[in-house]
Write a structure and sequence with these properties.
37% helix; 5 strands; three-stranded antiparallel sheet; mainly alpha; Arc Repressor Mutant, subunit A; single chain; two-stranded antiparallel sheet
Length: 182
């Protein structure tokens, strides 16, 4: 630990190298320069990563959430709306090793602080995009499809569509008619 601290202090005390105007910025690193890829015979240097807080390294003890890196790299992240992303990440966190979870819509809405309408729309769009399956009580987070799917016009978008096609919306309407809050 002491050696790591000394190494870090030594690295921080050294002046930063001057930026080479002939080096190009890497797309994922802001304006940090990278080596041009002209010479393919030279092996690319790997960045040595050391934990910033070695005493706080995460350990997988029992269950854990898993999202493939291509979820970000291949455009799945950017294809989702805020509520879709929120619901998808929640389902990933609460699912078992097979991607299954039994959370009911009222508990999900409460935990995510979203309305039933927002939940229904997000859920249906995730189903349409082939990211989750749902049978009315059980969710399954699915393996990612080959590429992200965009929403088609068939998704439930209007209040009337939701009132006639979704059990959660029907439940909400019945509860409202009896003066109960959902």
């Amino acid at each position: 630990m002491k050696k790591q601290q000394d190494d870090l202090k030594r690295q921080l005390s050294q002046p930063a190298p001057a930026a080479d105007p002939h080096r190009h910025a890497h797309a994922n690193c802001g304006n940090q320069p990278t080596m041009p890829h002209r010479n393919t015979k030279v092996k690319a240097q790997r960045i040595e990563k050391k934990p910033l807080s070695p005493d706080r390294i995460r350990k997988i003890t029992s269950s854990f959430a898993f999202i493939e890196h291509r979820f970000l790299r291949q455009g799945f992240w950017s294809s989702l709306s805020h509520h879709e992303l929120l619901l998808y990440l929640f389902l990933v966190l609460v699912s078992d090793r097979n991607g299954l979870s039994y959370y009911c819509y009222d508990k999900i809405c409460s935990l995510l602080q979203i309305t039933v309408d927002e939940y229904i729309l997000a859920r249906d769009l995730l189903i349409e995009k082939d990211l989750i399956a749902f049978n009315g009580s059980l969710f399954q987070v699915l393996a990612l499809p080959q590429k992200p799917r965009s929403s088609s016009p068939g998704a439930l978008k209007t209040a009337k569509d939701m009132q006639t096609h979704d059990p959660a919306t029907v439940h909400q309407l019945i509860a409202h008619s009896f003066g109960k809050k959902t």
